[in-house]
Amino acid sequence: MANVIVIGAQWGDEGKGKITDLLSRSADVVVRYQGGVNAGHTVVVKDKTFKLHLIPSGILYPDTECIIGSGTVIDPQVLIEEIDQLEAIAISTDNLFISQTAHVTMPYHRMIDNASEERRGSHKIGTTKRGIGPTYADKSERTGIRIIDLMDAEGLRSQLEWTINYKNAILEKLYDLPPLNPNEVIAEYLGYAERLRPYVVDSSLKIYQAKQQRRNILFEGAQGTLLDLDHGTYPYVTSSNPVAGGACVGAGVGPTAIDRTIGVAKAYTTRVGEGPFPTEVDGEIGEFLCDRGAEFGTTTGRRRRCGWFDAVIGRYAVRINGMDCMAITKLDVLDGLEEIKVCVAYELDGTTCQEFPSNSRIFARCRPIYQTLPGWQRSTADCRTLEDLPPQALDYLKFLAELMEVPIAIVSLGASRDRTIIVEDPIHGPKRALLDEDGTPVKLEI
Ligand code: IMP
């Protein structure tokens, strides 16, 4: 038995959905521990494609319990739409549970997110405009509404009458927006409460009981390490803690509950929204990565910025998350390239910088120092073992593993489950590098 955290090692969109889906097969419980409807993953079931923002993709396995944990923020309207979509194609949500202490995104949160982005002008964050930052801000300011408050009609009424009056002053005076009608908002949210009531639980207790019963728990991080509120490219970050440490707070478990941390990184880098991105490439290569990688956001449809793999942030992510191993996704996107660059360090004001600088203004001045590797220029789509890979692709993976000092346990070569090379079982396998001591690739089947 093992309890594992799956986290993004870059700026989100690393393909965590597929890796979580693969690992969910051996998980009894999947816990989403932070973020809200800013996240998104595409799920294909019975020839139907739909997008989930809050519900873990583990919901597709009827015996896997899916918990939306305390550290998340929930937009009830979107959550109910997701539940309806699943039930419309006969996927049961009886295995879905919502934490009573998660915070609720309200209409004023979305309005303030939109309006404050406009006001920021050139200082904008490039948020998803789903009200995430304002919901977490209210949580810290202790004016938030929690799921448990939604369940208590009288308490909700009295809390919202006060809060909406307070928010109306901000909407009207600061942002020139029309005020909200408290009665309409209260009626709308009491309606959501009745739909969600059957799913609401004491989630940390449920997770504790699963642990006591020695069931496998998978903690699923949304977004990525560089979008972490404390450890990312502040202020161009999200308002929660996607890093592995966030799993304990967001799920309500102690660090002793965690056995392993698995990081997910793309074979190149992407970023949505504003903020520094040293390895970003425009022109032909940028277009190539964006087109072959279908790099458009699941939540906002925005085109993602694309660039080469950055091993400095990769190493940083290994350190900040205490990563045991890594999954490299979308290696196939690089198939047609003659040569591939990897950023091994930064040049900063004439000196070489090996570490990620926490100041975004300094980070914006970092120029990538690249090492160029030969491409493989043939399809890897049908490769199922490391030996099937072109030697240049294997060298590329070894190079990344060496630079980041982390074993690569999984290589993904496309969206479908079968397009995967399992180098070693990331949950139960020994913690080994991609290379054996004598330099031969490690190959384990699970
Ligand atoms: P927010 O989370 O909507 O406040 O957005 C803050 C920053 O995080 C913006 O740069 C967003 O583009 C980025 N972001 C939020 N969620 C995701 C995600 O799931 N994938 C990639 N970027 C995200």
Entry keywords:
single chain; 446 residues; alpha/beta; 10-stranded mixed β-sheet; 4-stranded mixed β-sheet; disordered C terminus; binds inosinic acid
Summarize the structure in words.
There is one protein chain. The strands form 5 sheets. Strands 9-7-5-2-10-1-11-15-19-20 form a 10-stranded mixed beta sheet, sandwiched between helices. Strands 14, 16, 17 and 18 form a 4-stranded mixed beta sheet that branches. Strands 3-4 form a two-stranded antiparallel ribbon. It is of the alpha/beta class. The longest helix is centred in the middle third of the chain and has 22 residues, at 153-174. The model is unreliable at 432-436 and 441-446 (pLDDT under 50). The protein has 13 helices and 20 strands. The radius of gyration is 22 Å and the shape is globular. Helix 3 crosses helix 4 and helix 6 packs across helix 7. It binds inosinic acid. Inosinic acid binds next to helix 4.
Instruction: Decide which structural class fits the backbone.
Output: alpha/beta
- What proportion strand? 15-25%
- Work out the helicity level: 25-40%
For the record, give the distance between the C-alpha atoms at the N and C termini, rounded to a whole number.
15 Å
What overall form do the CA principal axes indicate?
Answer: globular
Please give the largest β-sheet: 10 strands, mixed
Low-pLDDT sequence parts: 432-436, 441-446
Short description:
The protein has 446 residues and is α/β, with parallel strands linked by helices. The chain has 13 helices and 20 strands. Helices cover 32% and strands 19% of the residues.
